[in-house]
Amino acid sequence: MIGYVTLGTNDLARAAVFYDALAGELETPRMMDFDGFIAWGKPGGAAGIGLTKPFDGNPATVGNGVMIALEARDKEQVDRLHALALANGGTCEGPPGPRGDSFYAGYFRDPDGNKLNAFIMT
């Protein structure tokens, strides 16, 4: 079971605005907030997301083939999460819509280029 996922960022303040917007829609608060690290999640809840500048001091880079999937309540929330991502510095990687018979998702990248999606199994 995954407890949390940490993504690198080169601008923690900018990335925090992006993830605060998504976490607010998902009703998931910040659970840790330090000078160089922020994490969103609920103790005992689903996996959380953390953001940090890389410990080794090198620039954060995007993992090719890596994607974080955010489970939504319904199609409307998928649409809202995608719109929030774009409104907060994200870029579109595929608009919300059906993918096959039982999957609805919208794909986007955060301001650092990390790929995410919001989805629901229909």
In short:
It contains 2 helices and 8 strands, in the order E-H-E-E-E-E-H-E-E-E. It has 122 residues and is an alpha/beta fold. Strand 7 and strand 8 form a beta hairpin.
Task: Give a description of the structure.
The model has no long low-confidence stretch (mean pLDDT 94). The protein has 122 residues and is of the alpha/beta class. It has a four-stranded mixed beta sheet, with helices on one face. A four-stranded mixed beta sheet has the order 5-8-7-6. It has helices spanning 12-25, 75-87; strands spanning 4-8, 30-34, 37-40, 48-52, 67-71, 91-98, 103-109, 115-121. Helix content is 22%, strand content 38%. The protein has one domain: 2,3-Dihydroxybiphenyl 1,2-Dioxygenase, domain 1 (Roll). A hairpin with a 4-residue loop joins β6 (91-98) and β7.
